[in-house]
Amino acid sequence: MNSLLADRRLELLTRLVVGTIFVSASIEKAAEPAAFAAMIDNYKVLSPALSMFVASTLPWVELICGVAVILGVGVRGGALVIGLLTIGFTFAVISGIMRGLDISCGCYTLDPEVGKIGWRKVVENSGIVVLSVFLVYSTAARVTLDRLVAGRREQEASSN
Prior knowledge:
single chain; 160 residues
């Protein structure tokens, strides 16, 4: 297990996959918060006002965390937020399934005919959670923007 956690290529690939999922999921929702709020309302767990607040803020959190994970800036924090969000999304999907709702999850597109909630979505989300946990605990020497900036600071400090 330690060799997997220390594998730089696996860590980079995982960052690209998880980050890309969240960046791509955020774009349409950020552009159309009212439509996203309607999708959130379909779950029947939040008030309309709270749904609008979530629809106005959540896509930006997804975008920031996704970009951070891709670039390697605060990977552990971004992956932790992504993992916690995905757990929350999964509970919402399970709640909808248990209540017999026939709705779109609102995950990647606002098209109501695409991405219906179901156990497949729970499995997909579980995979994202596993990947996020991997990123939180990875010990790989990351190929990151953080490391690049730190290296430049070290060079500047040693040349002064």
